[in-house]
Automatic annotation (TrEMBL):
The keyword Repeat does not apply. Keywords: Hydrolase, Lipid metabolism. Gene3D superfamilies: C2 domain. This is phosphatidylinositol-3,4-bisphosphate 4-phosphatase. Its EC number is 3.1.3.66. Residues 88-111 are annotated as: Disordered.
Amino acid sequence: MVQSATDEATWISCKNLLTAARDRKLNTYVQISVAHPTEQSLTRYANTEVVEATRDPLFLTGVTFPSEYPIYEETKIKLTVYDVKDKSQETIEGDGHRGQSEYGSGVCHHD
């Protein structure tokens, strides 16, 4: 899902996100965080746009790590999906957390 060490972007998508109510559509975005080998904590790197009213969002905002950004083989990249209750205020529904994935920087996609 995330590509590093080049100026190329990779897009992110989700399928069959779970909701509390079956008929409810989600308004979701993905937060991308990075943990460098020398740091113990995650740093927010970027967010996608909010995709409305679907459980299968395709985010058109690409994630790019420019060549000058320090990405190492040991760098961890975490993608967290959130449900937004009110897009205009970007209020997160409940805990809002709908899923996450964590990758080493050598991984470019996840099936």
